[in-house]
Structures are given as C-alpha cells and as structure tokens.
Amino acid sequence: MLAPRIGRQALQGVVACSAPSTVTLPGFLVPAFQTLAKRNFSATTSRPSKLGRTPLLVPRGVDIEISDLYLKKNMTSYLKTYKRNVTVKGQLGELTLEIPDFININHDDEARTVVLSVKDSEHKGQREMWGTTWADLNNNIMGVSEGHTAVLRLVGIGFRATVEPRPEKEEYPGQQFVCLKLGFSHPVEMGLPLGMKASAPQPTRVLLEGINKRQVMQFAAEIRRWRVPEPYKGKGIFVNDETIKLKQKKIK
C-alpha cells in the first residue's frame, strides 16, 4: 500500500516544530543547572587504596634496596618517564621490581615494615598502580623468603606427567623438561624457565616451584593450554584449586 500524501500546510508545521529554539531559564534555576551540568556520572567519592596503604611486613633475612630515579626511554610516547628499581634479596634468591616515580616507598629497617604512598591520591592512574605495586612487592618478598608453588592436576584416562632431562634440547645446563602424555600422537615436552624447579610426586600431579610468582603461574598456564578443562566430562589440566561446573550432555 502507498503511504498517504502529506499536505503542504502539515509539512510546514513539521518544519517549524523541528527548527531550533532558544530556551531562557529563570534566574533562580541557573545555579542549579550549572551544578547539574558539571556533576560526574558517578557520585562515589575517591578513596585511597585500602590494600596499598597497608604496611608490608619484611621477614628476617630479607633485605630491600631502593635505587634512585632514572629516565626510561619510551618509544611510544614523547613524555619523559622516570622509574626506580626495588631490589629484594633473600635466602632463595633476588628479585627486582620496577615502579613508577609517583609511588613513594618508606622503608623502616628497625620495624621491618614498608609503607607505600602516592603523590596524588585523587589521580585515577596513580590509585590503580598503588595496589598493584603493593601486590607485586608482597609477592617478591614472599618469593625470596618462602617461594611460590603451583600444583597441576591431570584428569583424564591415560594422562601422565614426568619430569626428565633432555640434553639435546636444553637451553641452559641442567634444564628440566615436563613431559606430558595427553592423548596426542606425540608426547608434549616443555622446558622449564631458568630459576624454576619441577617434580612429579604422582603420575597425574606436577609441582612447580620458583621465587617469581608471575613466572610460575605463566608456565602453569602454558601447560594448561594443552588440555583446557572441558565442561562435559570434566577432563583437562587443573591449576591449584581450580574447579569447573559440569554440564548435561547434549541429547538429540
């Protein structure tokens, strides 16, 4: 069906209605309108990081060294970026953390505590890095004193794991390899990064040890990628306390 024709008078009325018009507010409404226009979407006030302002406890036998600021070149920006290094030494090794210049570190040797603060707690980027830096420094302190571990569980028929040397493939002397049998036509062999140790207390268990938590969990994720847990039979490689919710089978 054809659309009805619009008369000339009706068309002129539509054009007149769509023309912009100037609205004048009364004088007593102007201050309220200006306040409403400047108001942000979120009314939540900015608060300092609860995690970042918590003091870090430094155990006995762990030393912390803080370097001076240095200029770090950034190829993606013309702005000058200043950094400082925080070196943590312990009985298990040594780790270095690079932190931005707006984070201040107050290290009390007598009380064995470290307190982090930022220059501007109202700045969103500084608040975000406040808690992140606290967590990274805490992981380094625990790593050089106690170490970090990750347990891999192999769930599936025929899934097996061993830790063996491979002299013809090693990248550094004494490198260990995690050898996995995951149902493929060939075994999966993955070399450990430098500074990490692995053991297989059971055929379906792999224990990873290291002082760098990020390195340990990254290597565990690379192993898990070969057999990601699937939700129908519950087979796969699980990291630490990872669980999965099983689904019902698709019945046609």
UniProtKB/TrEMBL annotation:
GO cellular component term, pick one: mitochondrial large ribosomal subunit
Keyword terms of this UniProt record: Ribonucleoprotein, Ribosomal protein
Entry GO MF terms: rRNA binding; structural constituent of ribosome
InterPro entries in alphabetical order: Ribosomal_uL6-like, Ribosomal_uL6-like_a/b-dom_sf, Ribosomal_uL6_a/b-dom, Ribosomal_uL6_bac-type, Ribosomal_uL6_CS
Keyword Ribosomal protein: yes
Record GO biological process: translation
SUPFAM superfamilies: Ribosomal protein L6
PROSITE patterns: RIBOSOMAL_L6_1 (PS00525)
Every Large ribosomal subunit protein uL6 alpha-beta domain range: 83-147, 178-237
Family (UniProt): Belongs to the universal ribosomal protein uL6 family.
Protein name, per record: Large ribosomal subunit protein uL6 alpha-beta domain-containing protein
